[in-house]
Design goal:
With 316 residues, the chain is an alpha/beta fold. It has two domains: 89 residues, no CATH class; 194 residues, 2-enoyl-CoA Hydratase, Chain A, domain 1, CATH 3.90.226.10. The protein has eight helices and 17 strands. α5 packs parallel to α6. It starts with 6 loop residues before the first strand and ends with a helix.
């Protein structure tokens, strides 16, 4: 499992401080800690003050920004939990997760009356790559419709997450327009993720878009496993509660949280867990998401999904 892959571009919050003069290491750390305290989902009055104080003590003795990193990372663990991460200048989540690999795009195959959409992770920030990913899914879904009169398998196994917005926009042909999930912060405040006319929206603001097409009213079986994480868990929840959908496999990884992006003065970046996911019914998910049908073996899970789809098609 590639750890610490955030929900990039979630739009939950972006904190940037524009100062006339470079901040001192103490000012630099104080700003980061202030944002952690305001937005960190796991900030607890019983543990946070000590974590904050330790980071400030490190910053007071620091000669430069780099000397504050260890203290800030320790405080981040307390405020944001395991899904949060601190990256020094010049580093990105893509570096950590994918190394030198090229982006992988959605792939659609058909077998008989069933089409399968394999949705890989997407730890990218290049707008051209993000758009190509979304369109590959959307166009592929529409192109496969004449080949499949029955149902779909959406395969999220091994998807470690990344940028959720192209994933959702690309799948918009298979999901009804409207609210699909929520981000809920520690105060209970919600931000709404929705689909409309090929667009993925956050509180009504378009984040990603594909050329709109007709909705495809076919049964959908979603495959998940223990490496289905972060943004892939958001996609998983976007299918929850739909009457024509069933999920198969094993519980997801349990990174069903949204991360804020905090850019610091020297270019370091903090990805801070600031909210957890809730499905369209409002149910919160802070733990691994269980499938409708637990099938630990990967091959058996896909076979069970196909069997259910065939039965669902026969009943249409």
């Amino acid at each position: 499992m590639v750890g610490l892959v955030a929900v990039l571009g979630s739009g939950v919050a972006v904190a940037v401080r524009d100062l006339a003069a470079p901040p001192s290491p103490l000012e630099y750390a104080s700003h980061a800690l202030e944002v952690m305290q305001e937005q960190g989902y796991y900030v607890d009055p019983a543990t946070w003050p000590q974590a904050r104080q330790r980071a400030l003590e490190t910053a007071r003795a620091a000669d430069d920004y780099e000397d504050t990193y260890i203290g800030l990372a320790g405080a981040l663990d307390v405020a944001g939990g395991d899904h949060s991460t601190f990256l020094p200048p010049g580093r990105t989540l893509g570096d950590r997760a994918l190394g030198d690999q090229q982006p992988a795009y959605p792939v659609i195959t058909s077998s008989g009356e069933i089409a399968t959409l394999r949705l890989p992770g997407l730890v990218e920030s290049d707008p051209a790559v993000l758009q190509h990913y979304a369109e590959a899914a959307a166009v592929g879904i529409r192109a496969a419709v004449p080949e499949t009169a029955c149902g779909w398998i959406v395969d999220l196994r091994g998807n470690h997450g990344g940028n959720m917005w192209p994933m959702l926009a690309g799948l918009s042909g298979l999901i009804p327009d409207g609210k699909v999930l929520y981000f809920v912060d520690r105060h209970g405040r919600r931000k709404t993720v929705a689909l409309r006319d090929g667009s993925a929206l956050l509180d009504g603001m378009q984040i990603a878009r594909v050329s709109d097409g007709p909705k495809i009213n076919h049964p959908v079986a979603v495959l998940q496993d223990g490496e289905t994480a972060s943004s892939a868990e958001a996609v998983l929840l976007a299918f929850h509660g739909l009457p024509y959908v069933r999920t198969f496999g094993s519980p997801s990884y349990g990174y069903s949280t949204a991360n804020s992006t905090i850019r610091l003065h020297d270019g370091a970046t903090i990805y801070l867990t600031s909210a957890v996911f809730a499905d369209r019914s409002g149910r919160l998910y802070a733990d691994p998401i269980a499938p409708d049908r637990h099938v630990a073996d990967s091959t058996a899970a896909e076979a069970a999904a196909r069997e259910w789809l065939i039965q669902a098609c026969d009943q249409r």
